[in-house]
Amino acid sequence: MTTADRFRAAVHRRDLAALDDLFTENIRFYSPVKFTPFEGKPMVLGLFGVLLRTFEDFRYLGQYTGTAQTGADNTSAASAVLLFRARAGGKDIHGIDLLHFDDDGRIKEFTVMVRPRSAVDALGEAVLAGLVADGLVPASTGE
Predict the structure, then answer these.
(1) Which of 41, 77, 93, 139 is deepest in the core (most CB within 10 A)?
(2) Residues 13-28: pLDDT tens digits?
(3) How far apart are CA 97 and CA 55, in angstroms?
(4) Closest Cα partner for 66 from 33, 19, 23, 99?
(5) DSSP letters along 73-128, please?
(6) pLDDT tens, 40-68?
(7) Which strands form 56-69's sheet, in the order they lie side by side?
């Protein structure tokens, strides 16, 4: 079973412990609503805790694999694109997760792209509220 398959299964089970095993210590998570990435395993796991509570009817629809240049170090890395659909804040969401893997097969970089814009806005508001509620970001964060 590939890391992408294990990731999909963990998300469907809402299993943060399984996600912890799949992430590198210095993972970067690029959000569709924040310019700078979330960095480090503790922050990204906290974010996933919020995301797993926020998304409704989340399901992966397909997967593509290959290699792609990462944003952090501009090197080519094994990658997977996971297509998904979900709901958040009353909005239908269509998106992709782009995963980049390190040499050991763990996820070192994660990028999410979501459409339409109304879903991006609804998701951003819901996730920010969850991050603030969990004490992961101060209430004044608005990047």
Answers:
(1) 93
(2) 999 999 999 999 999 9
(3) 14
(4) 99
(5) T--EEEEEEEEEEEEETTEEEEEEEEEEE-TTS-EEEEEEEEESHHHHHHHHHHHH
(6) 999 999 999 999 999 999 999 999 999 99
(7) 38-39, 23-30, 107-115, 91-101, 76-88, 56-69
24 sits in which H/E element: strand 23-30
For residue 9 the two structure tokens come to 């299964």
Closest CA to 129 of 121, 139, 120: 139
| Site of tokens 């339409």 | 116
Token pair of 101, please? 């893997």
Element (H, E) at 10: helix 3-13
